[in-house]
Amino acid sequence: MLRAAARKGYPEATVGDIVEEAKVSRRTFYEQFANKEECLLAAYEAASVRVLRQVASAIDRRRTWEDNVCAVVDAYLAGITADPAVSKVILIEIAGAGPRALALRRRAYRQWAATLTRPGVRPSLELRQAVIAAVNERVLIAVEQERIDLPVLRKDIIDLIVSAMSVPVGTDA
After folding, report:
1. For residue range 29-79, what is the model confidence (pLDDT) as tens digits?
2. Nearest C-alpha neighbor of 139 from the set 55, 79, 57, 65
3. Maximum CA pair distance of the chain?
4. What is the mean pLDDT of residues 118-138?
5. 143 near 91, Cβ under 8 Å?
6. Which of 10, 71, 121, 140 has a CB 3.0–4.6 Å from the CB of 93, allowing a cystine?
7. For 45-164, CATH number?
8. CA-to-CA distance for 173 and 130, rounded, in angstroms?
9. Which residues does 29 contact at the CB level (< 8 Å), separation at least 6?
10. Alpha helices in 25-64 (DSSP H)
11. Are 108 and 80 in contact (CB under 8 A)?
12. Do 61 and 121 form a contact (C-beta atoms < 8 A)?
């Protein structure tokens, strides 16, 4: 699914394209999925779980929060740059796949946002989730412009997360 959607775009990818990429029969496809949307949702969830596991495993409670942010960003960037086809689908094509796909993306953002807790700092889970959406938007800009300068992207993402998470509890800033 991910390869077919990356090659043709999700709206244009057909079940025929998917089974051709997967080298399975239509019957096998329909034994697993009701339609291509179900297939995309399953593929997106599997890909996002893999990246989220990489992100979560990068956290080491013995390090400073800032060092963990750097490690998490490195794990995220490694995960999304490892396979450009997968990245294109989870960053771009998922947006055109309907409300269920967007809900799945928000859930993934929420799961990553949960790793950004920082004692004594104000941002709610919802605000941290919005920060993750901003991180993905920054990556999306780089992908669309085909200018993925990892050191610049890494710095921008770290700066975004650290600045958003630096408002102490009890301040109005």
Report:
1. 999 999 999 999 999 899 888 888 988 899 998 999 899 999 999 998 998
2. 79
3. 60
4. 85
5. yes
6. 10
7. 1.10.357
8. 17
9. 15, 18, 19, 22, 39
10. 26-32, 36-57
11. no
12. no
